[in-house]
């Protein structure tokens, strides 16, 4: 018996002992991309407090009115989940994420050229917040499908 076990262990290579990932090894890349997406989306929302005094001074408005931009960014971002979920179910993760990235980029770019606070509320707050939710939903769904399935 000892001789049989010895022969079995000699036949195994190191490559035979390492399990093959079910996703071909791309699960870590998807997880890393989700982390980067979290940094970008959450960074936009959580750094608004730093931008608040700058926006108040630039637009010569009260901090209360300027804070509406950040509030709408988070409010629309959190309330648009059912819409983003329906789009992902109908079209899939990839097209929704790509469209969301393009629309959010355009919204934030237009917000940087906003001539007054009302335009900034519309572009940065509403448009940017509405589309940013697609990133969170699709990265969560991609991470779950690549790591669990």
TrEMBL record:
Membrane topology, record value: Multi-pass membrane protein
Transmembrane residue ranges: 26-54, 66-84, 96-127
Subcellular locations according to the entry: Membrane
Single GO MF descriptor: monocarboxylic acid transmembrane transporter activity
Main location: membrane
Annotated keywords: Membrane, Transmembrane, Transmembrane helix
Pfam families from the UniProt entry: MFS_1
Keyword Transmembrane helix: yes
Cross-referenced InterPro entries: MFS, MFS_dom, MFS_trans_sf, Proton-linked_MCT
Keyword Lyase: no
Protein name per its UniProtKB record: Major facilitator superfamily (MFS) profile domain-containing protein
Start and end residues of each Major facilitator superfamily (MFS) profile domain: 26-149
GO cellular component entries: membrane
